[in-house]
Amino acid sequence: MTPEQMRDASLLELFSLEAEAQTQVLSAGLLALERNPAQGDQLEACMRAAHSLKGAARIVGIDAGVSVAHVMEDCLVAAQERRLLLRPEHIDALLQGTDLLMRIATPGDTQGEAAVPAFLVQMAMLLDPSAPALDAAGASAEPLPLAMPPEVPAMPVEPEPEVEPAPAPRSGKRTGEGGERVLRVTADRLNSLLDLSSKSLVETQRLKPYLASLQRLKRMHGQGMRALDGLKTQLEGSGQSAEVLDALAQTQRLLAETQQILQQQAADLDEFGWQASQRAQLLYDTALACRMRPFADVLTGQSRMVRDLGRSLGKQVRLLIEGEKTQVDRDVLEKLEAPLTHLLRNAVDHGIEQPERRLLAGKPGDGTLRLRASHQAGLLILELSDDGAGIDLERLRRSIVERALSPAETVAQMSEAELLTFLFLPGFSLRDQVTEVSGRGVGLDAVQHMVRELRGSIELTQVAGQGCCFHLEVPLTLSVVRSLVVEVGGEAYAFPLAHIERTLDVPAEAIVQIEGRQHFWHEDRHIGLVAASQLLNRPAAQDEADSLRVVVIREREQLYGVAVERLIGERVLVVMPLDPRLGKVQDISSGALLDDGSVVLIIDVEDLLRSVDKLLSTGRLERIDRGARAGRGVVRKRILVVDDSLTVRELQRKLLGTRGYDVAVAVDGMDGWNALRSEDFDLLITDIDMPRMDGIELVTLVRRDSRLQSLPVMVVSYKDREEDRRRGLDAGADYYLAKASFHDDALLDAVVELIGGAQG
Predict the structure, then answer these.
(1) Which of 400, 640, 674, 690 has a beta carbon 3.0–4.6 Å from 586's, enabling a disulfide?
(2) CA gyration radius for the chain?
(3) Is 270 helix (H, G, I), strand (E, B) or coil?
(4) How much is the mean pLDDT over the chain?
(5) Is residue 632 part of a domain?
(6) What is the pLDDT of residues 473-508, one digit of tens each?
(7) Which residues have a Cβ under 8 Å from the Cβ of 350 and sit 6 or more positions away?
């Protein structure tokens, strides 16, 4: 490559970076001008961005870029001088030009320059409506009344396709917050850097015991010196020979020299250890900070997408964003982009009404979406709301019945929350016709799946006629977690602080029995109590202390107390995923290393809460006390009920419990699978549609397991279609009972048919 070619390549790269930055200014400014065309500051910012791009394109010799930026600048100057009022068609064209400039600046994109002639004609018509129209061949019959830069000749006009949106920013160097240069680094390298920095920090902690031993040796050396001084005093008074006294003096001199060396070495090691730990901590903190990015990084182009989609649907919609600087792990941001795009498109298409309908309802003609990001207890909280029409619940009921998802009688009795859950089912849509945006039944189910992959949750609420709100909670980072480390059964476990309400010492006499469950009273509330050793299958401690160390964890408004053996302290842990060959370990999410290099398991609090709820609701909770418990008496047949509906779970538990069966419950398929692997049951009763793992998947796993394949299985589901019945039975279920025909005798008769009476 010649020096001239190297120089040109460098300039082209600079132009590409310039275009990336300036087109972002143009996009944001033009969206603001669409709402208020007379904003002087935005007109000035857009004009300067176009002017800068024109100059940059001229320097690198890209004539097409000069032409596009020049005509955009003319339009914006005319608006500044009040010779032109920017209308939606002007904004459309200017945004189209913004995309075109980004394409022109993208190496290898030949479509950009090819679309320039048609764009110049379009802008000429907008700036001067009296300009001649194109002839049949697409060429102008007369010269265009468009001022072109003197050094760039007018380009021939040919019929061209519409300009495609500009591509997303490419990998490479960019400019970040504060004007810092940003480099793209692979995720694997960043993860390796964080892992190495974490291990480096752990290694520096190993110097502490060496330093402590050296300090102890120094103290012992000093004691030896003092003892020798005392011995010398005694010998001098007893008339010992000069030879003995000289040998003693020589020993004292040698010890004094070694003491000086020992003191210096101890001081040097102390200084080295402090410096090493400080640098390791700084390295770790810097590596950790590299993973965190502002939430705004996932919003690039979203405001433009909302605006353009709304325009294509005949709606005026704007996106208001709060919390753009909220720091989030880059892995979380990357995985949030797709679900957020789904939700935004869904809100524009389904949520916001046409302008005429909004005006009739007393609303502004323009629709508004609000996206708010914030931190809360170690979680990223996202709230996306719209001011649209909300969900037509009657239409939703009809759609559920028409799709044979549940009988009309059952649907009529469902609460609003239960009805809204159907919107998250695969293939479900309220649109009768398929369009480019909606009607395929793909959207909310995909969003829910992606959010759950982040170990997060999503909830939909709505107010008829006023709009919908999606509430998402996801971990702030998947790499590190601030945790409380505790000891259970002689091993270390970590509770993420995000889920901890407080820690308490609960006196033994404060523990009470209420309806067979252990509770304690705190701040005017009864809090259910369970032993961590029972949840984690660890041996119970033989501690005779007068009080219990309790970690209080929260699930929405419900508090649970988990008794542990010892509180080790708060730590920031670097998450280390478990070996995938282990599968899903009940109540455990991952592992980490403590300062001394020992391993700690990080609690999956969501799993743990389900386990706590199960123990508290089934009466199988072990008492937290010392000594042997009384015998269990007559052995009863055990049934596991798996259903994500609290009402259905409790109904079946009480119904079967009154007939003498020992009933355990699980809140979804994953919870049920964990229970089946750790306990013995005589019958499994499961729903089909459940989060994390549905009933079909659960039955399939049961039939593949050598220990469980002979376990009787009954499916109880809202779905009463032949194909659903066949799916359940084909998966291996022994009995299928529709909830529509559900009544006491039907369930009990089926249970007796499968496993007989309650006592074995």
Answers:
(1) 674
(2) 36
(3) helix
(4) 79
(5) no
(6) 888 777 777 789 999 888 899 998 767 888 988 887
(7) 388, 430, 431, 438
Same domain, 649 and 702: yes
Strand order in the sheet with 599-603: 566-574, 480-488, 491-496, 599-603, 588-593
Ramachandran region, residue 726 (left: φ > 0; alpha: ψ -120 to 50; beta: rest): alpha
Burial zone of 334 (CB within 10 Å; 0-12 exposed, 13-18 middle, 19+ buried): middle
Tokens of residue 306, six digits = 């909302």
* Structure token digits, residue 326: 């909220």
Q: What is the pLDDT of residues 74-98, one digit of tens each?
A: 999 999 988 899 988 899 999 999 9
> Which residue among 435, 450, 475 closes a domain?
475
Is residue 462 a contact partner of residue 469, using CB atoms and an 8 Å limit?
A: yes
Q: What is the pLDDT of residue 377?
A: 67
pTM of the predicted protein model? 0.52
Closest residue by Cα to residue 155 from 66, 73, 76, 77 = 66
- Copy the structure tokens of residue 668: 């979804």
- 178 shares its domain with 198: no
Select from 238, 272, 293 the last residue of a domain.
293
Question: For residue 71, what pLDDT is reported?
Answer: 92
Query: What is the pairing mode between strands 566-574 and 588-593?
Result: unpaired
Supply the range of the domain harboring residue 543. Answer: 480-618
CATH assignment of the domain containing 392? 3.30.565.10
Q: What percent of the chain has pLDDT over 90?
A: 15
Distance CA 316, CA 366 (A): 5
Q: Is the pLDDT of residue 336 over 80?
A: yes
Q: Please, what is the end-to-end C-alpha distance for the chain in angstroms? A: 87
CB atoms within 10 A of CB 522: 17
What burial class does residue 476 get, using C-beta atoms within 10 Å of its C-beta: 0-12 exposed, 13-18 middle, 19+ buried?
A: buried
**What's the whole-number mean pLDDT along residues 280-285?**
84
Query: Whole-angstrom Cα distance, residue 135 to residue 297?
Result: 45
Give the pLDDT confidence score for residue 201 in this predicted structure. Answer: 76
DSSP label at 492? E
Same domain, 329 and 467: yes
pLDDT at position 8 is: 47
Is 565 within 8 Å of 557 (Cβ atoms)? Answer: no
Q: Which is nearest to 417 in space by CA: 393, 439, 399?
A: 393
Q: How far apart are alpha carbons 451 and 442 in whole angstroms?
A: 15
Instruction: Kindly indicate the confidence band of residue 514, based on its pLDDT and cuts at 50, 70 and 90.
Output: low
Torsion sign across C-alpha atoms 728, 733, 736, 739: negative
- Same domain assignment for residues 102 and 134: yes
Q: 223 — phi, psi (to 5°)?
A: -65, -40
Same domain, 329 and 466: yes
Tell me the per-residue pLDDT of 206-247, one tens digit each, with 9 for 90 and over. 777 778 788 888 888 888 888 888 887 777 777 777 788 888
- Determine, yes or no, domain membership for 633: no
DSSP, residue by residue, 144-211:
------TTSPPPPP---PPPPPPPPPPSS-EE-GGG-EE----HHHHHHHHHHHHHHHHHHHTHHHHH
Query: What number of other Cβ atoms are within 10 A of residue 582's Cβ?
Result: 8
Calculate ∠ Cα 540-543-549, nearest 5°.
85
Residues 625, 628: Cα–Cα separation, whole Å: 9
Distance of CA 55 to the CA centre of its chain: 42
